[in-house]
Structures are given as C-alpha cells and as structure tokens.
Amino acid sequence: MSISDLFDSEFKSRNKGHFSAIARVALADGNVSEQEKEFLNKLANRLEISASEYEEIIENPLKYPINPPYLYTQRLERLYDLARMVHVDHQLGDKQDKLLRKFGIALGFTPSNVNYIVDKALSLVDKRVDSDTFVYEMQNMNK
C-alpha cells in the first residue's frame, strides 16, 4: 500500500466518522425533517460519501467510530465548515441555530460554552470571513 493510498484511506475513514456523528445528531429525535435530509445530502457530497456508504451510515450510524477532532483548531475548522453549510444558504431556516448547537456538542465543545461559540461562529460566517480569519477570531474571542 502506497502512502497516498494510506492517506486516502485514513481521510475517507475520518470523513465517514464525521458524517456518522452528524447523522447521529440528526437522527437523535427519531425524525429527520426534509431540511435535515437535504443538509445530510449536501454534507455527504462534500465529504465524498458515496450513495451506498450514505445509506449504510443512515441505516446504522453507530457502525462507524466517531473521530472527534482532538485539537481545538481542528474543531474550529469543522465548525466553520458546518456553520457555512447551515447558515450561508439558510437551508435549515430557524433550525440552523439549534442544529449547529447539537453539532457543536458532537464536535466536543462543552454545553456551558456551545451557545456562545455557535453565536460567534454564525456571526463570523454571516460576515463571510475565510477559514483562517474564522479560526483566529474564535481562538481570540475572549481576549
């Protein structure tokens, strides 16, 4: 196995774990709305999840291990991607804040600060900042 194959395999596995974690959050209440389904479809496409993998994960999201980002910077980068997806096109409407808070908890942010983090994240995304600015601002929001 070449190094590029190993990297691709690890990258694909991490994406499946990430998608599985988000699917678990969306499926937690037993009801996936049409907006949530559209969001999951969009996320699967972005994470290069095939149609068969998508169905398999939706059928059993517990099959894939959750690989929460260990580093705070990585959590912020994932939050940036998710915030942009739920906020920029307003696909989820009023549910965007609630869903992003759930995703924030799944990413490893604590319940005591997730509201503040999500509000700040949505504010930055609304200003259309790039990922580097987003991470910088999020890391320095209490300074």
Write the layout of secondary structure elements.
Elements (H helix, E strand, L loop, with lengths): L2 H25 L6 H13 L4 H9 L12 H16 L7 H13 L6 H13 L4 H9 L4
What does it look like?
It contains seven helices and no strands. Mean pLDDT is 80; it is low at 1-7. The chain folds into two domains: 1-67, no CATH class; 69-143. Helices cover 69% and strands 0% of the residues. The chain is mostly helical and 143 residues long. The termini are far apart.
Mean pLDDT, to the nearest integer, reads 80
> Structurally, how many domains make up the residues?
2
- Can you write the helix and strand succession as a string? HHHHHHH
Radius of gyration, CA atoms, in whole angstroms = 15 Å
Structural category is mainly alpha
Low-confidence spans: 1-7
Question: What is the percent of helical residues?
Answer: 55-70%
Give the CA-CA distance, first to last residue: 46 Å
The main sheet comes to: none
* DSSP helical segment count: 7
- The shape is globular
**Binned strand content:** under 5%
Number of strands: 0
Give me a quick take on this structure:
By secondary structure, this protein is mostly helical.
